[in-house]
Amino acid sequence: MSAVCRRQDAIVLRPMQVQDFPAVLQVQQHCYPPSLIESRDALASRHRLSPDAADTLFIHDLALHPDARGHGLGPRLVQTVLGQGRRRGLRQARLVAVQGAARYWRRFGYQACARDDYTRRTYGEGAVGMQRPL
Questions:
Q1: Which of 15, 27, 32, 41 has the highest count of CB atoms within 10 angstroms of its CB?
Q2: In whole angstroms, what is the distance from residue 64 CA to residue 73 CA?
Q3: Digit-coded pLDDT (tens) for 79-109
Q4: Cα 75 to the chain's mean position, in Å?
């Protein structure tokens, strides 16, 4: 999901497109430490795989450029994507909370899952796997 500013006061939510990759990568630079920044190839791989048949919605990233914060865009993005998952008949939503974000995700009904070695190895010691029904 990408947010596009068409005018200063209007934010349009739409699916991410290949031409959005440079902007998405730039937002990562503003929001994450170097160890969590992904390459363009990793982003492209996830984008290609996203339409596959599944029963789970996985939110890989929610990052807002500092200039976009304070406008309620984060909750709007989350509610939009959860609604899309429900309309597609998906049963659950999952994510990995990093940088202490588990508290934020609890606001949307996410709860911690059993902690696994893959999550710790991949995302760091403080990462929390979370899920919620749709």
A1: 27
A2: 8
A3: 999 999 999 899 999 999 998 999 999 999 9
A4: 11
Dump pLDDT digits (tens) for 8-62. 556 777 777 889 888 888 888 888 888 888 888 888 887 777 667 678 888 988 8
Is residue 131 classed as helix, strand or coil in its secondary structure? strand
Task: Give pTM, 2 decimals.
Answer: 0.67
Question: Helix axis angle, 21-31 relative to 40-49, nearest 10°?
Answer: 120
Cβ-proximal residues to 3 (8 Å cutoff; 6+ apart), any chain: 11, 12, 13, 64, 68, 73, 77
Residue 13 near residue 3 (C-beta atoms within 8 A):
yes
By three-state DSSP, how is residue 56 classified? strand
- Which tokens belong to 69? 């914060």
Compute the distance between CA of residue 94 and CA of residue 130 in angstroms, rounded to an integer: 6
* DSSP type of residue 2: E
CATH code: domain 2-133 is 3.40.630.30
